[in-house]
Design goal:
This protein has 59 residues and is an all-alpha fold. Helices cover 64% and strands 0% of the residues.
């Protein structure tokens, strides 16, 4: 188990029943980076990965 799995599990337990829009998620990611600029690159990588999940050209 990766260390990050604990945070992912907490997210699923606390907010797993909620429905959110991608616009809401994007706003939260922007806010997180504003508050934690050292995480700009990992958040950008995650956002890009999520945006391109269905792109067959990237496989």
């Amino acid at each position: 188990m990766y260390f990050t799995d604990r945070g992912i599990e907490e997210l699923a337990q606390r907010r797993g029943e909620e429905e959110v829009s991608l616009a809401w998620l994007a706003d939260q990611l922007r806010l997180f980076v504003d508050l934690n600029p050292d995480f700009e690159v990992p958040v950008e990588r995650l956002a890009t990965w999520l945006a391109r999940l269905d792109d067959e050209d990237d496989e």
